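Review form for a predicted model. The reviewer records the input and the model, then writes brief findings.
Reviewer: anonymous (R2)
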Amino acid sequence: MFAFLIIFISYWTLINLNFKKAGKIVAIVFTVLATLPFLSFALEDYFFFKSDAKKFLNENQITLTDNFKIKSNQITGLSDLYQKFELEISLKDKERIIQQLKTSKYFQDTVKDDHSLYPKAGSGLTNKIYLDFKKMNLFVERLIKS
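Model under review:
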């Protein structure tokens, strides 16, 4: 609201001082700058790069040695942010990660409810909570950070 008030006052002042072109340019530039935070929030699914994927994977002690491709990225929620991304990785990296997940202390062979981490999160500040499991042909790593 305050940003748009500044835009209006700047435009109005420059127009009244007979700087019509400068007023339009200033209004356009300030409007673009004021809407950038809203656009970045709305378009954050599209601004997900390989470096972001590597950062998330490194937080979970997973490293990719070969080249990979981002197939999809979905971010939902406001206060409880939920992000799901899918990568196309090499067979060598896939086999190594599966072995890493199978030997993890968080791995469970059978999982009835894959949302069972939420009650463990509790309230307040808690550590990361992991659950690694195999569901049909998929190996899944779940992580909750509170």
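Findings: Strands lie at 69-76, 82-88, 107-108, 129-135, 138-144.
Further findings: The two ends are 32 Å apart (CA to CA).
Recommendation: see findings above.
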